[in-house]
Design brief:
Layout (H helix, E strand, L loop, with lengths): L2 H4 L13 H11 L3 E5 L7 E6 H9 L20 E2 L5 H11 L3 E5 L5 E6 H7 L2 H12 L20 E2 L8 E2 L3
Parallel strand pairs: 3-4
Antiparallel strand pairs: 1-2, 4-5, 6-7
């Protein structure tokens, strides 16, 4: 099976100058959590991606105004992509290697022509491939810039996290 057999081809895209509010509305309208950011509607070459998590962590948590903050200020760049003729196994390997839940599909000219999500993999790949992707994507990322490896306590939350490997403890209020 090839990427082109399972990818979603109706992909909502945006440009870097779109506002986060516009992108969030598109995520609601298209029921998706990631939108490719392209250099222009005519060229459709990806320059990054914007996810619901990017908006939450880089804008909302930082108290930025989503009505005026642009995608270029919060997007993840560069993005990872794969070709439509790549095998499903190769696609799973890319998702595992980069710990990503979605991978863009680009044609020979580098234009965005689709996207493969974890759900696409789950619905089309073998159990082993699906389990491998889910396990790899879910591993703790220790290399995220500015993030502590283990959060001991966060004052804005009503719970504390214990050291890695132990479940969160709820605090009574």
């Amino acid at each position: 099976m090839k990427v082109k057999d399972i990818m979603t081809t109706t992909v909502a895209c945006c440009t870097p100058d779109a506002t986060l509010q516009e992108v969030a509305r598109a995520m609601c309208d298209f029921d998706c959590g990631e939108i490719p950011v392209v250099d222009g509607r005519d060229t459709m070459r990806p320059v990054g991606v914007i996810t619901d998590r990017d908006i939450a962590c880089r804008a909302v948590a930082a108290n930025k105004n989503v009505a005026t903050t642009t995608v270029s200020e919060c997007m993840t760049s560069p993005c990872v992509s794969i070709g439509p003729d790549a095998s499903l196994d190769a696609c799973c390997a890319v998702m595992e290697r980069y710990q990503i839940r979605r991978v863009l599909v680009t044609d020979q000219e580098g234009r965005c022509c689709g996207i493969v999500s974890q759900a696409d993999v789950a619905n089309n790949a073998s159990r082993d491939n699906t389990a491998g992707v889910v396990k790899a994507v879910s591993r703790q990322k220790l290399t995220r810039p500015g993030a502590p490896a283990i959060i001991a306590e966060h004052p804005s939350l009503k719970f504390r996290l214990k050291p890695a490997g132990k479940p969160p403890l709820q605090t009574a209020h």
